[in-house]
C-alpha cells in the first residue's frame, strides 16, 4: 500500500503542470492573506538579484538547505535566514507563547 506522501510524489511527477498550477494557487492564497510578506519576499528577491545581500545559511542550525529569508527581522536588507525546519519550529514556539499569554 502506498503512503499519502508517495502518492503525492508520483502525482507530482505525472502532472507537473497541474502541480505548478496548484502550487501557484496556494502561493496566491498565502500572499493574499499576508500581503506584507509578499512585499518583503519581493524586496529580498530584488536585493539578492542586485547582489546587495547574499543568501546566508540558517541562523539557528547552519543548514544551507531550504533556507528562506523570513520577515522576523522586518528589514529586507538584513533578513533573518532560516531553514524550513527552524522556521516552522520558531513559529510553533511563537504560537505556543501567544496561547499562553492569551493573545490568540
Ligand atoms: Zn535551521
What does this structure look like?
The protein is mostly helical and 104 residues long. It is built from four helices and two strands. It has helices spanning 4-14, 16-33, 35-50, 84-101; strands spanning 67-70, 80-83. The protein has a two-stranded antiparallel sheet. Helix 2 (16-33) packs across helix 3. The N and C termini lie far apart (40 Å). The model has no long low-confidence stretch (mean pLDDT 90). The structure holds zinc ion. Zinc ion is lined by residues 58, 60-61, 63, 82-83, 85-86.
What letter string, H or E per element, gives the SSE order?
HHHEEH
Query: Assembly state here?
Result: single chain
Weakly predicted, low-confidence segments = none
How would you describe the shape? globular
Present as ligands are:
zinc ion
| Terminus-to-terminus distance | 40 Å
Q: What is Rg?
A: 17 Å
Sheet having the most strands: 2 strands, antiparallel
SS class: mainly alpha
In total, how many beta strands? 2
Proportion of residues in extended strands:
5-15%
Strand order of the largest sheet: 1-2
| Helix content estimate | 55-70%
Overall pLDDT metric: 90
State the helix count: 4
Quick gist of this model?
This protein has 104 residues and is mainly alpha-helical. It has helices spanning 4-14, 16-33, 35-50, 84-101, and strands at 67-70, 80-83.
List the helices and strands and how they pair.
Layout: H1 4-14, H2 16-33, H3 35-50, E1 67-70, E2 80-83, H4 84-101
Antiparallel strand pairs: 1-2
Helix pairs in contact: 2-3
Zinc ion is lined by residues 58, 60-61, 63, 82-83, 85-86.
Amino acid at each position: 500500500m502506498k503512503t499519502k506522501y508517495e502518492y503525492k510524489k508520483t502525482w507530482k511527477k505525472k502532472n507537473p503542470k497541474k502541480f505548478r498550477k496548484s502550487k501557484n494557487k496556494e502561493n496566491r492564497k498565502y500572499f493574499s492573506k499576508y500581503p506584507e510578506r509578499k512585499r518583503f519576499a519581493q524586496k529580498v528577491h530584488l536585493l539578492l538579484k542586485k547582489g546587495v545581500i547574499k543568501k546566508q545559511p540558517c541562523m539557528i542550525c547552519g543548514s544551507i538547505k531550504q533556507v528562506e529569508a523570513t520577515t522576523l527581522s522586518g528589514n529586507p536588507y538584513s533578513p533573518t535566514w532560516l531553514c524550513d525546519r527552524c522556521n516552522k519550529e520558531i513559529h510553533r514556539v511563537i504560537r505556543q507563547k501567544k496561547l499562553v499569554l492569551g493573545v490568540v
